[in-house]
Structures are given as C-alpha cells and as structure tokens.
Design brief:
Its main location: nucleus. By secondary structure, the chain is mainly α. The chain has ten helices and no strands.
Length: 463
C-alpha cells in the first residue's frame, strides 16, 4: 500500500508537471496568437485571396496552397521541387509497382516532411498531416500565427541574413574560382609536362644527332689530314718527277747536240756509224721508253692532281658542313637555354601549383575540422536522443506500472463498490426487516397496551 501511495504521488506529480507544461504552452500560444482578420490580411498581402471565413471554415486545397507559398518563401521549396526525390524513393522502394502510391499523395507527403521541419523551427512542435488534410480553425490560427511571427522576425533580421548569405556566396564563388584556377593550373601543368616530354625527346634526338655529327666530323678531319698528307706526298713526288723529266730532257738535248757535233766525224766510217746509229737507236728507244714512262707518270700525276682537287673540294664541303654543324650547335645551345628557361618557368608554375595545393589542403583540413565538429555535434545529438529515448522508455515503464496500478486500483475499487452495494443492499434489507420488526413490535406494544389498559379497567371495575 505504501508503494502504491508513492506511485500515485509520482503519477500525480508528473501529471501536475505535464499540466504546468501544458499551461505554459497555452500561455505561449496566447501570446503568439493573432486575430483572424490580421491573419487573413497577412495572407492577402502575399497575393492569395483569403478571408476570415476561409479561416473559420478552411478548405484543405486552399490551406495547402498557403502552406506551399510559405515554404517557397522561407525554404525555396514546393511540391514540384520534392517530386524528383520522392519519385526516386518510390522507384527504389516500390520497385516494379511505382504507381501503388498516387503521385499527388506522394508529393504531399514529401512536402509535409519538409514543412514539418519548418514548423519545428517556427515553434510548432505538434504539426501533423491532419493539419494539411483536415485543418481546423484553432489549429490554423495557431500555426499561421507562429508562421507570420516567424516571417516578421525574419524580416527584422534581414541585414544579418543578407550578410551571412553574402558571405556564403562569396566563399562559394571563391571556392569555385580557386577550383577553376586549380583546374586551369593542372591543365597548364599537364601541357607543360607534355611539352617538356616532347622537348626532351627532341633534345635527346638532337644530342644524338650532335654526337653523330661530332663523330662524323672527327672522322672527316682524320680523312682530311690523311688526304692532305697524300696530297703533299703527291706534290713532292710530282716535283721530283718533273725535275727528273727536265733533267732527262736536258740530257737528251745535250746528247743530240753532241750527236750533231760528232756526226761529221762519224760519217767517214759506215761501220762505226752503223754502230753509233744502232747505239743511238737503242739510246733513242730507251729515251722514248723513258719519255713514254715519264708521260704516263705525268698523266698519272695529273690524274692524282685531279683526284686531289676533288678531294680538296670534298674537304671544303666538309668544312662548310662543319660550319653548318657549328650553326646547328649554336641553335642547339639556344634550344637548351630556351629549354632551361622553360624548366624554370615549369618549376615556378610547379611552385604556384604547390601553393594552390597547399591552399586546397588547408581548405580540406578546415572542411575536415568542420566535418568533425558536425560529426561531434551529430554524435552529441544522437547521445542526447539516446538519453531522451532511454528516459522515454523509463517514463513509459513508469507509465505502464502506473497504468497497471491504476487498473488494479480500479478493479479493487470495483470490488469494493460491489461489496458496498451488496452491503448497502443488505443494510436496506436489514433496515426493512428492522422496520417491519419495529412495526410488528409497535403493533404488539399497542396490543399489549390496549390489553393492559383493558386489564387496568377491569381491575378498576373490580375494585
């Protein structure tokens, strides 16, 4: 019984607390509540025909249109904006039967979900789907009053809202600009890398060609030196041969002169002349043979001289080729200097890209910190929700126990009431019996009294 009394006291205490909270909410509603005419005037001001009679006898379609206008004003949301998400959800849940839920009902349910979030922000925590489908006058007055007061508060805070909105837009535009610049820098970096790779291939090709030309130049120089040595030797041999030819020609001339001088002396002796003639013929033949040999040698030397001329022309062509190669080498040096400048520009661009990457990493870290804060807030909210859920479960258990106690007490009271009724019935029966007995006793008393009086009368008569 003591436990029952404590539970009853706790139930009465919670009921009193609930009554106080309800009373406080009623006081807030009374403070926030606006007259019907003012509500109708505010709704007319937004461009929707509305009267106080429409508020007293509400039409669900008209009320939904008013709610949709408020949602579009405050959240930029209508039933058309929630239609794609609701259609996707219906396709995912219903599968092959997407038309099992009508489109209007589906969109209205999605609109109600977003509208309920708006109502909770406005202070209406008990907004239900019935307020859209079966609105009543009291509920509409309360909801519209809270909505209109929220809109007025929002209009009074327009500079602050605009300031934060402008800051958000600036940050968003800055992020878009940085992202675009980052993309452009990445494209330019990729292009520079491709150009660098292409230039590296060209540089490698030109270096290879330069090495080949250097090797060819060295080989040509060695050939030129060999040809020059051969030319010098041929020139020396030619001079020597020419000197020998001149010497032999001079000898022939002197010999002929001597022959002319000796001819008169030889004419006198035919045999000696014959011998001299044969000797001279032999000498002449030898001289002719030598002259032919010398002419052949001269022609060979001329051929060698022509060959040397051709070789000298080739050498000059090689010299010109070397000059062209030197020009190409200068161009290669210029290309290398240009490539070095490009490398410096690429390194500078790389530094800029690294700065952009560092900025991006900084923004990513800030974003991660904000995400962590949001996650911590979400965890705190979830923990609070879990605590509230646990508290709700405890209160439900207490409510269940109180209901059981109340039911038990009601059963006990019913039994006692039955007993009381039975007792009252018994008491009524006893009362009737007692009254009947009293009446019979009274009748007996009257009879006895009459008998006594009669007896006394008889006694008096006897005396």
């Amino acid at each position: 019984m003591a436990y029952g009394n404590r539970m009853s006291q706790q139930f009465h205490g919670s009921q009193q607390h609930h009554n106080r909270g309800r009373k406080k909410e009623d006081e807030n509603d009374a403070l926030m509540r606006l007259p019907d005419k003012e509500i109708a005037g505010c709704i007319n001001d937004i461009g929707i025909p509305f009267t106080a009679a429409d508020l007293i006898k509400p039409n669900p379609q008209q009320i939904q249109m008013v709610f949709e206008w408020f949602a579009e004003l405050l959240m930029n949301m209508t039933r058309e904006t929630v239609e794609p998400a609701m259609r996707a959800a219906a396709d995912e849940i219903c599968g092959d039967y997407p038309d099992i839920v009508p489109t209007d009902t589906r969109n209205l349910m999605g609109f109600f979900t977003s509208l309920r979030r708006l109502m909770m922000e406005c202070g209406v925590n008990d907004f239900t789907f019935t307020d859209l489908t079966k609105p009543t006058h009291d509920r509409l007055v309360k909801i519209f009053s809270y909505l209109i007061n929220f809109v007025r508060f929002r209009e009074s805070q327009t500079p602050v809202i605009d300031e934060h909105f402008n800051k958000g837009e600036k940050i968003k535009s800055r992020i878009d600009t940085l992202y675009t610049e980052n993309q452009e820098m990445e494209q330019r970096l990729e292009e520079m890398r491709r150009t660098l790779k292409a230039n590296e291939a060209q540089v490698k090709d030109k270096v290879r060609r330069n090495d080949e030309l250097k090797a060819r130049l060295l080989e040509l120089r060695r050939n030129q030196e060999r040809v020059a040595e051969m030319l010098e030797r041929a020139k020396a041999d030619k001079a020597r041969r020419q000197a020998q030819l001149e010497e032999k020609t001079e000898k022939v001339v002197r010999t002929r002169q001597e022959v002319e001088k000796l001819r008169p002396y030889v004419m006198e002796s035919p045999i000696s002349l014959q011998a001299s003639l044969s000797e001279l013929s032999e000498n002449l033949l030898r001289e002719k043979a030598q002259i032919d040999a010398m002419e052949k040698r001269a022609r060979a030397l001329q051929t060698s001289s022509d060959t040397f001329t051709v070789v000298s022309n080739d050498v000059q062509a090689c010299v010109r080729l070397l000059e062209d190669i030197s020009v190409e080498l200068q161009k290669e040096d210029e290309e290398e200097s240009r490539a070095s400048r490009n490398r410096e520009a690429i390194s500078e661009r790389g530094n800029n890209v690294r700065e952009v990457e560092q900025t991006e990493k900084l923004l990513q870290r800030q974003l991660s910190r904000w995400n962590e804060r949001i996650e911590s807030l979400r965890k705190n909210a979830q923990e609070k929700a879990e605590v509230a859920q646990a508290r709700m479960e405890e209160l439900r258990e207490v409510q269940k126990q109180l209901r059981e106690e109340r039911a038990e007490k009601q059963r006990d009271m019913e039994r006692r009431r039955i007993r009381i009724e039975q007792t009252e019935k018994k008491m009524a029966d006893l009362k009737e019996n007692i009254e009947s007995e009293i009446q019979s006793a009274h009748d007996e008393y009257l009879k006895l009294e009459s008998h006594i009086k009669l007896y006394i009368t008889d006694m008096e008569k006897c005396l």
